[in-house]
Amino acid sequence: MIQPSALAIVLAAGKGTRMKSDLPKVMHRLAGATLLAHVLRAAKAAAVDRIAVVVGPGMEQVGAAASVLDPKLQTFVQAEQRGTADAVKAAREAFEDFHGHVLILYGDTPLLRPETLDKVRGELEAGADLVVIGFEAEDPTGYGRLLLDDRGGLAGIREEKDANDQERALTLCNSGIMAFRSSKTLLGLLGRIGNDNAKGEFYLTDAVALAHGDRLETRMVLSDQEEVLGVNSRAELAMAEGAMQRRLRALVMANGATLTAPETVFLSHDTRIGKDVVIEPHVVIGERVVIEDGATIRGFCHIEGAKIGPGAIVGPFARLRPGASLAKDAHVGNFVEIKQAEIAEGAKVNHLTYIGDASVGARANVGAGTITCNYDGFAKHRTEIGAGAFIGSNSSLIAPVKIGEGAYIGSGSVISKDVAADALALTRSPQEERQGWAARVRERRGRTPKNAGNKGT
Fold first, then answer.
1. Within 10 A of 216 (CB to CB), how many other CB atoms are there?
2. Containing domain of residue 266, as a range?
3. What is the C-alpha separation between 382 and 52, in angstroms, rounded?
4. CA atoms within 13 A on the CB side of 87
5. What are phi and psi of 308, to 5 degrees?
6. Which of 77, 89, 153, 438 has the highest CB neighbour count under 10 A?
7. For the segment 382-408, what is each residue's pLDDT rounded down to a tens digit?
8. Known catalytic residues?
9. What tens digit of pLDDT does each residue of 173-195 get?
10. Domain harbouring 183, CATH code
11. pLDDT confidence of 262, banded at 50, 70, 90?
């Protein structure tokens, strides 16, 4: 059976005053992506063909960000915030001649699942004219209540400020998300919605009572409360982040990765983790990270924009910055930072090292305290370390420079010229020793080895 076309109108004009931010509410981030991006991805995953976003005046950055995710997306401006029905009217051009389902979504509900939207569309295909997503709330304060008729069908929605005591006692609440079988259904109801209510606004929720009165088929799809959480404050953003992280962790573990202390691992919306990966406690993973099968991420690592090959080991206390790429069985150890660099198969960069704008060849070994000096104050330059090369501890490699395959760099060297394959390069002053010097200095200062180390400072 061919599924009808669908249009999603995403309402994103809210100023989000409780966020106390210069940033529009829907542009705040959750697991690395904006709240709006999460909603748009859910819509697309539910096979929505077209998307329109309604923003407020001066919110050009919201429309621009949405267009990056979907170049075909339409943006409309709600000139004045006069309620949700008025916001939908602002996007009339997108749906008045549209043939298919029309979904009304909200840009601040980032936890909405595509599976729930699939259920909504399923109800429309089964004959419903209007479908609302509802939930049971332990504390319904602040939510609109879903009103049922004598047969248990959906009869209306009452906003809390307009509800009587009996209605306020209800725990079946409105998420705000609803869908219409067709644009004709939506338009017929929109034109009859008034603003005779406590706030003097045009509530889209009034469409339910109007549809029920017209004997249209009105139905409800239940979700859990967490899924339809609206983010209106920093506290609610933190709640949504916690929920999203639990969801992401569960997914990677279900796909075969081990998180030894899941609650301490933070993932991004686009993190890709293979099977038999082990991630130890207190790891933060940013956007654009791929971790392939069998890799190990030890504790207290921070990773973003990096690719980690099969069997590689990272950390503990390592930082992989954008452009870091570790091949199979590469090792990056404690207090190592990698940026815009490729670490080839079997290579080791085990401790206290910075590798930036560089390539490290297969089976090369980079000793402790080594740095690639990649920036001259004006531009970045590359360092190339050949396969099997050995870089002694505390070496500085002044880019641009090439270390040949199998070459040795003596510890403590500052290398500013290319080194040939299999050569030894070192820049080290001759060691000088002066017999009895230390004893003479102590004698002049009236200190002996017995009391030299016990003076206060």
1. 18
2. 234-425
3. 45
4. 25
5. -120, 120
6. 89
7. 999 999 999 999 999 999 999 999 999
8. 351
9. 999 999 999 999 999 999 999 99
10. 3.90.550.10
11. very high
> Distance between CA atoms of 308 and 297, rounded to whole angstroms?
9
With respect to residue 49, please indicate whether it lies within any of the assigned structural domains.
yes
Q: Are 11 and 105 in contact (CB under 8 A)?
A: yes
Q: List, in order, residues 6 or more apart from 393 with CB less than 8 Å away.
A: 367, 368, 369, 370, 411, 412
- On whether residue 286 sits in a domain, the answer given is yes
Query: In a 10 Å sphere around its CB, with 0-12 CB exposed, 13-18 middle and 19+ buried, how is residue 71 labelled?
Result: exposed
Mark whether 254 and 107 lie in a shared domain. Answer: no
The burial of 161, by beta-carbon neighbours within 10 Å (0-12 exposed, 13-18 middle, 19 or more buried), is given as exposed
Question: To which residue do tokens 């070459």 refer?
Answer: 407
Q: Between 206-213 and 183-190, two packed helices, what is the crossing angle to 10 degrees?
A: 100
As for how many domains the chain has, the answer is: 2
**330 and 223 together in one domain:** no
Q: Which residues pair with 220 in a beta bridge?
A: 132
Rg (CA), the chain: 31
Residues with Cβ < 8 Å from 38, sequence gap 6 or more? 30, 110, 111, 112, 244, 269
Quick one: 218 and 238 in the same domain? no
Which residues lie across from 104 on neighbouring strands? 9, 178
Q: What CATH number does residue 258 fall under?
A: 2.160.10.10
Write phi, then psi, for 208 (nearest 5 degrees): -65, -50
> Which pLDDT score, from 0 to 100, does residue 447 have?
66
Is residue 441 in a domain? no
Percent of the chain with pLDDT over 90: 88
Q: For the whole prediction, is pTM greater than 0.85?
A: yes
Residues 328 and 368 occupy one common structural domain? yes
87 within domain boundaries: yes
Enter the tokens of residue 55: 């923003």
What CA–CA distance (Å, rounded) separates 207 from 226?
25
CA 456 to chain centre: 53
Cβ atoms of 96 and 187 within 8 Å: the answer is yes
Token pair, residue 297, equals: 């991420």
Question: 235 pairs with which residues across the strands?
Answer: none
